[in-house]
Amino acid sequence: MTMMIDTGVFYALFDRSDIHHLDSLALLTDALEGRFGAPYTTDFVVLESTLLLRGRGGPGMARAMIRLLKKGGISVMLLEEEVYAAALELFDERAETLSLCDAASMVLMKKLNIQRLASYDERSFFGMAKQVVGRGYFESLEETRQKLVIAVDKTRAAK
């Protein structure tokens, strides 16, 4: 099993005031521990995430994301011309609900048979991803795991 990670998951990880912050921290911790198989994202998601983080939280938040990716563990897939062309087609078909970034993720997921998507954007991905995880993930964990995630969050906040 593998998992594709969407922009909102990265954003909420670095914005402690985001309603999904603990969901993201738990999801990415579990992803990096291999609980979902290999975690992937795309260069488009990295671009979108760093722009959003820098715009809303400043350059420090964007740099923190880059540092996370440099540590390894999350594979960043670069769009090839054929995938980009297919993403443009999908975007054209679903521009009302899907961004080009999201379309690229969907095309790559289909190409690589990735079934699971980490996202809070169920509306955009409705009927496209076999399994969307994200919203309520922290609450779904056992109490001992929740306490561990909260301890990690406190440690990160103290830095």
Please tell me about this protein's structure.
It is globular, with a radius of gyration of 15 Å. Strands 3-2-1-4-5 form a five-stranded parallel β-sheet. It is α/β, with parallel strands linked by helices.
Average pLDDT, all residues: 94
Helical amount: 55-70%
CATH topology: Rossmann fold
Strand composition percent:
5-15%
Assembly state: single chain
Our count of domains comes out at 1
Q: Describe the strand arrangement of the main beta sheet, using strand numbers.
A: 3-2-1-4-5
Main β sheet profile: 5 strands, parallel
**Beta strands, count:** 5
Output the number of helix runs: 9
Which structural category fits the helices and strands? Answer: alpha/beta
Q: What is the name of the CATH class?
A: Alpha Beta
CATH architecture: 3-Layer(aba) Sandwich
* SSE ordering: EHHEHHEHHEHEHH
- Span between termini: 33 Å
Radius of gyration: 15 Å
Low-confidence stretches: none
Shape: globular
Fourth-level CATH superfamily: 5'-nuclease
Gist of the model:
The chain is of the alpha/beta class and 159 residues long. It has helices at residues 7-14, 21-32, 43-57, 59-71, 81-94, 100-112, 122-125, 137-140, 143-158; strands spanning 2-5, 38-42, 75-77, 116-119, 131-134.
Sequence-ordered SSE layout with sheet pairings:
Layout: E1 2-5, H1 7-14, H2 21-32, E2 38-42, H3 43-57, H4 59-71, E3 75-77, H5 81-94, H6 100-112, E4 116-119, H7 122-125, E5 131-134, H8 137-140, H9 143-158
Helix pairs in contact: 1-2, 1-3, 2-9, 3-4, 5-6
